[in-house]
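FYI - complex with calcium ion, inputs then prediction.
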Amino acid sequence: MLSYSSCMIPAVAALLVTCHALRECPGNTELPEIPALPQRDDLKGQSHLSLPNSLDTDPLDVIADLKHRLCRLEGVLVLNGKIRKAGDKIFASNGKKVDFASALGSCEEAGGTLATPMNEEENQAVLSIVKPYNQYAYLGIKEGETPGQFKYINGMPLSYTKWYKYEPNGKGTEKCVEMYTDGTWNDKRCNLNRLTVCEF
Ligand code: MMA
Ligand code: CA
């Protein structure tokens, strides 16, 4: 069952500031124009104009309403298999198989990064995307200067690993990491085509 109480309120304040928020999301260049709502300043002395309901109420009510609406949207996306949730993370794939740099680029363009499972729950969530595609996926992990020393893309050391037996074994020749279709990890060259799975 979906836990709606676990839904977050990301950047709700930003949503309240302007009605252009949707189009201003990075990568949302194809969203249609949203007609400008009247701003508070526009309404001075105009009794025939009323504020939209969503701006006419207690800010806490507005936040609660936005939270409810976001949770419903997330529920639809989970129901339709478009996203997986684990803790505060959302995982999703575009179904495309590309090299590591391209996969990372697509994720960043969409406002996320490559899937980087940091615990068993997150690894299971990524696996639940890898499984139906039946394709290995690159993870947001790379080998550092020291062979055998793998790090998150942001340079931090790994706090969780799920290496397949005898991995990593590339000793500096396999600087990326792929997830197998059983959820275990293998160090692998970065120039192969692997499923793009992002986290947000
Ligand atoms: C391949 C390649 C390696 C992996 C081994 C496991 C032969 O190399 O995928 O990354 O470690 O298989 O046998
Ligand atoms: Ca390997």
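The two ends are 22 Å apart (CA to CA). Strands lie at 84-86, 89-98, 113-114, 137-143, 150-152, 176-179, 185-188, 194-199.
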